[in-house]
Hints:
Layout: H1 3-19, H2 24-39, H3 44-49, H4 61-73, H5 77-83, H6 101-111, H7 116-124, H8 136-151, E1 156-157, H9 158-174, E2 178-184, H10 185-188, E3 193-194, E4 196-203, H11 206-214, E5 219-225, E6 229-234, E7 239-245, H12 250-258, H13 261-273, E8 276-279, E9 282-285, H14 296-302, H15 318-323, E10 338-342, H16 353-362, E11 367-370, H17 385-399, E12 406-409, E13 412-414, H18 425-428, E14 435-437, H19 446-457, E15 464-465, H20 483-493, E16 496-500, H21 513-518, E17 523-526, H22 538-547, H23 561-569
Parallel strand pairs: 4-7, 10-11, 11-12, 13-14, 14-15, 15-16, 16-17
Antiparallel strand pairs: 1-3, 2-4, 5-6, 6-7, 8-9
Helix pairs in contact: 1-2, 7-8, 19-20
The protein binds one DNA strand through helix 2, helix 4, helix 6, helix 8 and helix 13.
Domain Helix-hairpin-helix DNA-binding motif class: 51-70, 91-110, 126-145
Domain DNA-directed DNA polymerase X: 1-314
GO biological process, one term: DNA repair
Amino acid sequence: MTRETLAGTLEEIALLLELKGENPFKIRAYRQGAEAVLNYDGDIVAKATADDLKDIKGIGEALREKLHELASTGVLKFHQDLRSQFPEGLFELFDVQGLGPKKVKALHESLGIGSIADLKQACEAGKVAELAGFGAKTQVKILEALALRESFADRFLLGMVTPVVETILETLRQHPDVSRSAVAGSYRRAKETVHDLDFLVATKEPAQVCKDFTLLPEVKSIIACGETKASVRLNDGIQCDLRAVSNEQFPFALQYFSGSKEHNVALRSLALKQGLSLNEYGFTGDTSELPPIHEEKDIYAALGLDYIAPEMRENRGEIEAAAENQLPKLIELENLRGTFHSHTTASDGHHTLEEMAEEAIDLGLQYLGISDHSKSSPQANGLNEQRLMAQIKEIAELNKGYEKFRLLAGSEVDILKDGSLDFDDELLMQLDFCVASVHGVFNLSEDEMTRRICRAMENEHVTMLGHVTGRVLLKREPYQVDHARIIDCAAETRTIIELNCSPKRMDMDWRWWKRARDKGVLCSINPDAHSIARLHHIGLGVRMAKKGWLRRQDVFNTRPLEDVLKFLATPKSKR
DNA sequence: GCCGTTTTCGGCCCGACTGTTTTCAGTCG
């Protein structure tokens, strides 16, 4: 039983209850329960098994009992009974744009549709258009949505959409009728993957700006275009929304559309307690005492809160912290002094030691850690002992030519199946630092994988742990690890954990960093760069670190070179 | 189904857009 299973079951119940047309607030309670399970800071599975789920906000009497039954027996009768009333494939219908519970229910009850394949067939036969509440246009839209679903993924990597976001923002900025513009939504919150892009403008000509937005060269098709809102699909498949508001409304709209939904719900209920109602256009209710609102921070201030950075707006305690002046002072990109974990042509990188060093210097860094693969990764042209020794010498030679910069000699050494390392200690001692990572044998049990990784961290020469779960976002599932145990082990062994900020990894996940921080575990923001361009991903890494509530002092590579060298020369037990 | 410095009962965020309607339901964010 895992935390994800518990939360997933509650989510599924919510969906099933929607299909049954249950009370929407009950449905929401299940969703919020799922969220509470995911966010709970502790061993929720053990607590559910022991029926010890007291005082968790969002989990009341009924959910407590259900979670206990599920955790202790592996199944939940309530859930199974609900499930048996609908066909398996019905769930995938919810992924089709434009289909919600009511329509899915109607399709199922009237036409017996229980899968995507059924739906496609019924549309092509013209049966869907004949249903009450449906029509010819709806049928066409469903067919389009199905085609879209086949050709594109519905989520995109944060790092991959950055260029198109910058381009569109720039165009909006230059529009003669636009006074302010911004990107909002999950992009602004730095979620590792985004479903769509949300843009916002302040203008006196909303309808015109909306229309012009749909004419951008990046636009493939128009989903909707109204007086104040437009929705389009871009050439690369991502959906892109624009909201046009007045200058006075802009901060409210920016706050609102930045989300998250959970953060906003919490913020609004806080407002309600103060006799205020908050929407995307402003405050209503007793506004006589309110100061003027010019920007987002004025909204938070009006509610008695410190300004909350967008990355933190996930309703994971930030509102409470803001009310008590307890928000952390988050790390900024300019705090970084260097970075670790980069590859060169020696293994599977695209640039030489010198080229990587030049780029790091251009980025204003004082040091760059080189960590090519080790010999057990032949697919990545991993270095054997001789080649690594040669690289150490080469780095020493190059360092003679730099005045205020230093290449650090390291290795991304494979953690073998039993937790031993690909190089012996004598060789590891020759290095400035060592990143230990799992690159093969992914199919171990959670316990075995966790022990394997912990054993590696116990090695005196392992400076940091590389990509904790090995996930490749949107592509490969993480290998199973017990994050809590790994964090505890890192704290005990004084091993740094890497925040691998390659856009496809973002590993360790942001949801775990606050816990690691509180246990005194240091983070290193590492690009895992295989080319000079990818060194720039440290910027994304900083945003992800903010999402994990990390401060400057929590991140190892904010330290200047001198301090880093001193740290690396100190035995782990004394760090 | 959850929750409580208005409440142990009665609320629970709310507006834009579309399509099918003829005044509104459904979906989305």
